[in-house]
Amino acid sequence: MMRSRLGGVHYLLLALLIVAGRVQAQSEAGAVAALVGTLQIQRGAAGWQSASIGVPVFVGDRFRTGASDRATLVFRDDTVLNLSSDTEAMLDTQAFDEAAGRFQTGVKMTKGKIRAWVGDHYRQPRARFEIETPTAITDVRGTQFIVQHNPKTETSDIVGIADEVEVIGKLGVIGSSVQVGQQMHTRVQKGRFPTAAQGLDETQFSQYLDGTEIVGTGRHDGLNVVHPAVMGRLLSPQDAPASLGIPGMPAAAAQAGVGAPELPLAYRLSPDVYANTQPLLDFKRTPPGRLPSGAVHVGF
Amino acid sequence: MRSVGKTLLVLCGLVAAGMLPSLVSADVRSHALYARGLIPFNNGQWDQAYRLFDAAVGADRSDPEPLYYRGLTQARRGALAAGISDLEQALKLSPSLPHAGLDLGIAYFDAGQYPAAKVWLQRAYEQGDDRFTAAFFLGLTLYRLGEDASALTYLNQANADPDLRPAAHYYAGLAQLHQGNEVAARSELAETAREQPLSEIGKLAQRYAGGGDIRQPPVPLPTARRKPWSLSASLGFQYDTNVVLAPSDSGLKTAQGITGEDDGRFVIGAGGAYTLLDTDYGTVRGAYDFSQSVHFRWTEFDLQGHRLRLDAASKPGVVSYGLSGVYDFYALDYQSFFQELLGTPWVSVAEGDSAATQLYYTARGRDFLRKPFDPARDAIDHAVGVRQYLDLGSPERVLSVGYQFDAEATLAHAPDDQQVSCTSTSQTGGCGARDFDYKAHQLDIGINFPIFSLAQGQAGYLFRLEDYQFLNSRANFQFRRHDQEHQFVVDARREITTHVSATLGFIGILNNSNIPAFDYDRFIISAGVLVTL
After folding, report:
1. What is the model's pLDDT at position B165?
2. pLDDT in the model for residue B420
3. In degrees rounded to 5, what are phi and psi of residue B77?
4. Rounded distance, CA A54 to CA A52, Å?
5. Is the pLDDT of residue B8 over 60?
6. Which residues make beta-bridge pairs with B531?
7. How much is the CA Rg of chain B, to the nearest whole Å?
8. Is the dihedral of CA B66, B67, B71, B72 positive or negative?
C-alpha cells in the first residue's frame, strides 16, 4: 500500500517535472554576454541568425562560432560558457527551480572548445550539469573546466581549471569515471574509456586556455569609446580658439570678453603718439598759463 | 585530550573543506555577475551595470576584471574618483590587464588630473596598448599641460587612426595657435572642418575654412590651456612728419622757430606676461612692457616707456567681467616725464549670436614729473565708455564701434571756491592748470579683417572732441580752447615664420583747434618686425 502510494507520488512528481520542464523550455535560459566576431544561433526550424549582446537564449538553441569568433553565454543558474572559435553546441536541457532545489543543465557539443564556469547551485546533491561530446560526458558540480572536441580525430579533451570534474566515456556500457582536478587533463577517444587524469605543465595548460578568454563584452569597452573628445564635442569652452567664439556666445562677445578695454589703436601702435599730445616745445618756451611773448628758435 | 585534538583536526578539516569550495564558488559567482553586468554595460545602462559589477566585486575581490569594469562604469557615470580607484586596484591585481592603463590615463584626464594622466598614458603608449588612442589622449593631456610642442608630436601620430583624425587635427590646431603658428593652425582646423563638418569642433573649425588668419585677441585668453607665459620683442622704424606737434600755421611755426619738425626713429619694444592665477572662475595675469624710441634728430623726444599691467578677468561667458590696473612710467630724453595709474572695471554682455556690448569706467591719475607740465597737467581723468562688437560673418571680421565721455580735472589750480584770476593782465599760479581742464567726447570705429589671406589687417577711425573748460593762455585768455581730433589708422601684420611677423602701419592725426598753437597735422608710417614666444 505504502509502495503504491509512493509510486503514485513518483508519477505525480514526474508529471509535474515534465510540465515544469516544458515551461522552463519556453522561458529564457540565459543571454549572450560577450562577442568577438559573430555568434550564430539556430532556434527551432529557423535558420542560423547572427546574435548580438543581450540576445536571450533558450533551451534547444544551437550555437556556432566561426574561425575567428568567440562568445560568452551567461545563464540564469549563474553558469557562464565561453565558446571558442569553430565551436558548435546546443543547450539541450535546462531545469532551474531554486525553490525546489532542482538544477539540471545539459549541453551537447559537436566540435570546438568550451570553457565553463558552473554555478554554485550544482553543488547540491540532486543537481546535474553535463557537457556531452560525441565521445564523453563531463559531469561537474560547481567548478571551472574546459571541454574540447575534435570531430576529425573523434577525441574529447577535458581540462580542470578549478575543483574537480567527473568524466565518463560514451561507450554504451558502464565504465569507471575519471576525476579531473585542477590543471589536469583527460582524453576520451571514440569507443574508449577516458585516459587517466594527468597533470599539465604551464605551457600545456595555457595552450588549452588559449582562445577561451574574452575581456569584457569583446567589443571596445574602454573610456576612449564615445569619449566626447573623439566624438568631436568641445570638451571645454576654452577649447574654442579665442576668436572662434564659444558655443552660446558670439565670437564678438568672446573678443570683447577677453580683457579690459584697450587704448585706441593709434596709441597702441605708437607710444610716442600716446605720450605726446601737447606742443611741448611751445610750453617749454612759454609755460602753461603764461602769455606767449617773442619767438625762441628751436632746432638743430 | 587526544579526542579533543582529533575533533579540532576534523573541525579544521571541515572549515578548510568548506573554505575551498567557497573560494572557488565565489569566483564562479563573481564571474556570472560580471558576465551578466556586461549586458547592461553594453547597452549603456550604467546604473544596472554598476549594481552587477559591484556585486561581482563583492563576491570576489581578487578578480581584476569586475573591478576594471566597475571602474569603467563609475567613470561613465561621472564618478571619476571612484572609477580611478577601481582601475588602479584592477591594475595592481593584474598589471597587464589589457587597455586598463590607457583607461586609467583617460579617467585621470577627464578628472583634470593631467600629471597623473600623463604618466599612465605615456605608459600605455610605450606598451603599444591601442597606441594611436594613447597618442591622442597623451597629446590632449600635454596640450592641457601647456606642452604644446610635445602635444603636437603625439597628435600627429594619432592622425593615423581615421576615427581620431578630426579631433587630433583640431587639438593640433589649438596647440599651433598657442605657439603662435597661425598658418599651421588654420591648416589643421581646415582638416577638422573637412573631415567632420557636422561635429561641434567641425563647425567651429569650419568658421575658419573660408580663409583669413586666426587672430589671437589683444589680451591673452584667460585659459588653462594656454602656456602661462608669453614673451615678445619688436624692432620698428617710423617716419613721423611732425614729431614736435608743430602748428599747421606756418607763420606761427616760424614765430616759434620750429624747422624740420619731421624725423625718423627706431622703436624697440619688449614685454612679457605671466598668468598668476587660473581657476574655474577666472584668471589673473600680470604683464610688463618696455618701449624706447630713438630719433635721428629730435633726440629730446626720445621716449622711454615702462608699463606694468595686472588683469583680473572672469572666464569668458555670456557675461564676462573684470578689473584692469595699469601703471605707466615715461621718460622723455631719458629724464622723467610722467607717471600714471589707471583702473578699469568692465563688463561684457553677449547679445544674440553676433553681437556683444562692453561697458567700462576708467579712472586715471597722471602725475607729470618735470616742467613745463609739472604741475599744470597733473590731473584725474574719469572716463565712461560703451563699445559694441559686431561679428561680420566670420570671426576675423569684427567691427567695433565705441563712445567714451571723459572729464579731466587738473589738480594744480586753486580750489574751485577760491577766485583764480586768469586774464591777460592778471594771472595767478592756477592759470596754467586751467589750460588743460577739459571734457571730451570720443567716437571710434574699428574693424579687423584678413587681407587676401596674406596678412591680418586692422583699420580704425577716431573722432575726439575736447572741450576745454577755461580761458586759455594761448588765446590770451580771451576764449576757451576747442579741439577736434581725427585719427586714421591702418595696420597689417604678416607671419613670416612661426614666431616672427612683419608689421606695416600708417597713422594720420588731424588735430583741428580754434587756437592755432594747437592746430596740427601728423602722419606716421611704420615698418617693423615682431617676435613672439
Report:
1. 94
2. 67
3. -80, -5
4. 6
5. no
6. B233, B500
7. 34
8. negative
The grid cell for A185 is 587533463
Range B22-206 classified under CATH 1.25.40.10: yes
| Segment holding A162, helix H or strand E | strand A155-162
Q: Is residue A171 part of a domain?
A: yes
In a domain, A32, yes or no: yes
- The residue among A170, A193, A209 that closes a domain is A209
A219 within domain boundaries: no
The total number of structural domains that make up chain A: 2
CA distances from B382 to B3, B359, B445 (A): 103, 14, 21
- Grid coordinates of B530: 615682431
Please state, in angstroms and rounded to a whole number, the distance separating the CA atoms of residues B230 and B273. Answer: 5
Which of chain A's residues have a Cβ under 8 Å away from the Cβ of B217?
Answer: 242-243, 254-255, 258-259
Which of A123, A224, A284, A296 would best serve as a mutation to test chain B binding (most B beta carbons within 10 A)?
A224
Closest partner residue to B103 (CB to CB) among A223, A232, A283 is: A223
How many angstroms separate the CA atoms of B89 and B95, rounded?
10
Task: Give the pLDDT band of residue B417 (cuts 50, 70, 90).
Answer: low
Cell of A178: 575519471
B313 with A251: Cβ contact below 8 A: no
Task: Examine the domain organization and report whether A92 and A12 are in the same domain.
Answer: yes
Residue A209: partners with Cβ closer than 8 Å, 6 or more residues away: A115, A146, A161
Residue ranges per domain, chain B?
Answer: 22-206, 229-532
The DSSP secondary-structure symbol of B182 reads H
Nearest CA-CA partner of B358 in B324, B327, B409, B408: B324
A161-170, A207-216, B383-392, B395-404: segment of lowest average pLDDT: B395-404
Residues A196 and A242 occupy one common structural domain: no
| φ, ψ at A279 (rounded to 5°) | -70, 90
Containing domain of residue A44, as a range?
2-209
Q: Can you tell me the distance from the alpha carbon of B528 to that of B533, in angstroms, rounded to the nearest whole number?
A: 17
A213 alpha carbon, distance to own chain's centre:
11
Rounded Cα gap, residues B131 and B99, in angstroms: 10
Residue A229 lies in a domain: no
CATH of domain B229-532: 2.40.160.40
**The predicted structure's pLDDT at residue B393:** 64
